[in-house]
Write a structure and sequence with these properties.
The complex is a heterodimer of chains A (115) and B (115).
Chain A (H helix, E strand, L loop, with lengths): L4 E3 L2 E4 L5 E6 L6 E7 L6 E7 L2 E4 L8 E4 L6 E5 L8 E8 L9 E2 L3 E5 L1
Parallel strand pairs in A: 2-11
Antiparallel strand pairs in A: 1-3, 3-8, 4-5, 4-9, 5-6, 7-8, 9-10, 9-11
Chain B lengths: L2 E3 L4 E5 L4 E3 L2 E3 L5 E8 L6 E7 L7 E2 L2 E6 L4 E6 L8 E9 L6 E3 L3 E6 L1
Parallel strand pairs in B: 2-12
Antiparallel strand pairs in B: 1-4, 3-9, 5-6, 5-10, 7-8, 8-9, 10-11, 10-12
Classes of the chains: A mainly beta (115), B mainly beta (115).
Chain lengths: 115, 115
């Protein structure tokens, strides 16, 4: 697609429910990144994929958070047993390659609210 | 660990005038990149300008320019001839030279343009 697409745009869920957030990167982009952005703060790194391989998941807060990218394209970030502190904007970004000079393209994010 | 500080939570400027947003960072690395990103109300995250630490020349992109003071670890963004469309949150970010995804972000500065 023309840009990084994330869905849903907004998600409201009750505490204890599982949620799945989707990211569709720019076609042909090898690398995909997930960030979390709390209100009034900059994004915080969660995890990173090259193709289908999860290269770094050091930013995932705990084992309720997981991510996958099974075919090296679309990625899903899953949060199990959501808690109110999980409420934030979840952003996805992609880049064409894996080099350090690569430009990151961000999606518009999914705003998650846990009641 | 690297840190990025934006000390101005909010700035305002009259349309057509010039405004400077401040950013300081702390690092012991010699190879790194610095970025300014714009987050408009549409919630996109758009790269405004990028500076490689090894370059002495300040980066410019049309009305946007930076004042990169490596010794002082300062990286300010100057917006000339401010336009209503410049109203947004502006984030300063740091990336190590050996990582293509571990962006470290400031807390952001909200820029208001007065017509």
């Amino acid at each position: 697609g023309a840009g990084v697409s994330q869905s849903p745009r907004y998600k409201v869920t009750k505490r204890g429910q599982d949620v799945a957030l989707r990211c569709d990167p720019i076609s042909g982009h090898v690398s995909l990144y997930w960030y979390r952005q709390a209100l009034g703060q900059g994004p915080e790194f969660l995890t990173y994929f090259n193709y289908e391989a999860q290269q770094d998941k050091s930013g995932l807060p705990n084992d309720r958070f997981s991510a996958e990218r099974p075919e090296g394209s679309i990625s899903t970030l899953t949060i199990q047993r959501t808690e109110q502190r999980d409420s934030a904007m979840y952003r996805c970004a992609s880049s064409l390659g894996t080099g350090v000079n690569e430009k990151l393209f961000f999606g518009s994010g999914t705003q998650l609210s846990v009641l | 660990a690297q840190t990025v500080t934006q000390s101005q939570p909010e700035m305002s400027v009259q349309e057509a005038e010039t405004v400077t947003l401040s950013c300081t960072y702390d690092t012991s690395e010699s190879d790194y990149y610095l970025f300014w990103y714009k987050q408009p109300p549409s919630r996109q995250m758009i790269l405004v300008i990028r500076q490689e630490a090894y370059k002495q020349q300040n980066a410019t992109e049309n009305r946007f320019s930076v004042n990169f003071q490596k010794a002082a670890k300062s990286f300010s963004l100057k917006i000339s001839d401010s336009q209503l469309g410049d109203a947004a949150m502006y984030f300063c970010a740091y990336r190590s030279g050996d990582s293509n995804y571990q962006l470290i972000w400031g807390a952001g500065t909200k820029l208001i343009i007065k017509p």
